[in-house]
Amino acid sequence: MLSFRNALIDDAEFILALRTHQKKSRYLSKVTPELASQREWLEIYQHSSDQACFIIEHQAKPIGTIRLNYHPHGPSFCLGVVGSQ
Q1: Number of domains, the chain
Q2: Which structural domain, as residue segments, surrounds residue 29?
Q3: Hey, CA dihedral for 46, 51, 57, 62, is it positive or negative?
Q4: CA dist., res. 4 & res. 55, Å (int)
Q5: CA-based R_g, the chain, Å
Q6: What's 36-74 look like in SS3?
Q7: Are 69 and 78 in contact (CB under 8 A)?
Q8: Residue 70 has what pLDDT?
Q9: Ranges under pLDDT 50 in the chain
Q10: How far, in Å, CA of 71 to CA of 82, rounded?
């Protein structure tokens, strides 16, 4: 069974591994490959009101992420999904 949960600062290493994986991240914006930077982003994210970032889990094991950026003053949003498989 799949479940979604809010991304936490403790998920930084998992997210960074996906974001810096050569094949899995080829369509994503580039990030600094430093764990401290990913943790800082997650800390800022927790106070954000214009985006959502979830960890996708299967049998309580993280297998991917989904991020939604939305614009409260417009009709559009941006969706990004990355899987570990």
Answers
A1: 1
A2: 2-83
A3: negative
A4: 6
A5: 13
A6: HHHHHHHHHHCCCCCEEEEEEEECCEEEEEEEEEECCCC
A7: yes
A8: 73
A9: none
A10: 21
Cα 71 to Cα 8, 32, 51, 63, distances in angstroms: 22, 25, 8, 27
CATH number, residue 52: 3.40.630.30
- What pLDDT sits at residue 13? 97
Cβ contact 46:33 at 8 Å = no
Q: What Å distances lie between residue 2 and 5, 7, 19, 60, CA to CA?
A: 10, 15, 21, 8
Q: What's the longest Cα–Cα distance across the chain?
A: 37
List the structure tokens of 81.
Answer: 């999904």
Structure tokens at 68: 């939604």
